Amino acid sequence: MVVLSYQVLQFPKTNHHHRRSSAIKPHHRHGGSFLRCGIAEPSGQPAPMGKKTKYNDGVFEKVFMSLFARKMEKFSGKGYKGQNKGLFDYDYDSFVDVSRSVMIGRNRIQQQEVVREVLMSMLPPGAPEQFKKLFPPTKWAAEFNAALTVPFFHWLVGPSEVVEVEVNGVKQRSGVHIKKCRYLENSGCVGMCVNMCKIPTQDFFTNEFGLPLTMIPNFEDMSCEMVYGQPPPPFEEDPVAKQPCFTDVCSVANTSSSICPKLQV
C-alpha cells in the first residue's frame, strides 16, 4: 500500500498573471489551502522561467517514475544505457532520458503510439470499459477526474490546481491549471511535450476512456491547462502544430526550422 503524504500550507490571496485560455477562469479563495507537492524551492513555488525547479521526491513519486520508465525502456533506442535499474534507482532525470531515447528515431505518430501502449500496459484487462461505465462523459465525471489529477499526477507535471472552465456554455470545475509543467521544464523539448504527453493523454481519455480532454500548453511560461469534458481539436488545427523548438534549452533542437521537426510526420 502506498501512503501519500502532503504538506498543507495556508497562504493569503494573491494575484496571478498567467496567460490563460479564454475558457479558463481561476478559482480565487481567501486564505485557501493547497498541496505543496514536493517542491524544494524556498518559496514553495516552481522556479521562474529559465530556471529548473528543485523537487524532493518521495517513495510515491519514485515508484511511479520507475514504473513508467521501465515500461518505456522496452521501446528505447539502442544507444540508451539505463537498463536494468532497480525499482528505486530511477529519478525524474532518468525518466526523461528514457522518454528522449524513445523519441529519437521515431516520427510523431510512432511516438504517440508508444505512449499509448505504455498507458494501456499499466491498466488491468477491461479497464477502459469499466471506466466508461463509472465515468460517462458528464459534468460530474469531468469535475471528478480534474480533482483526481491534482494529487495523482503531481509527480509527472508538478503542482496544479482545479480551476473553473466553460464547456459548451456551461461553467464547471473541470479544468486543471499546471503551474509549470515538470515534464516540459526538464525535457526542454516541444516535441516531447506534444507527442509524448499532450496528444497521447488527450487521445487516451477521449478515445479509450470516452471522457473528452483538451490540454493547452503555454510555451511562454511552461504552464498548461487541462480541460476535462472538452473535445480536443484536430492536430492540424491545434496551435501547437506550428510551435518552434526551445532553441536555448532543447538538446535536440533544430535552429534552422520554424517548426519543431518532431511535430512533423
Automatic annotation (TrEMBL):
Q: Please give the Gene Ontology molecular function terms for this protein.
A: iron ion binding
Enumerate the spans annotated as Beta-carotene isomerase D27-like C-terminal domain: 155-237
Membrane-spanning intervals of the chain: none
Q: Extract the Pfam families matched here.
A: D27-like_C
Q: Per its UniProt record, what InterPro entries does this chain match?
A: D27-like, D27-like_C
- Which protein are we looking at? Beta-carotene isomerase D27-like C-terminal domain-containing protein
The record lists the organism as Lactuca virosa
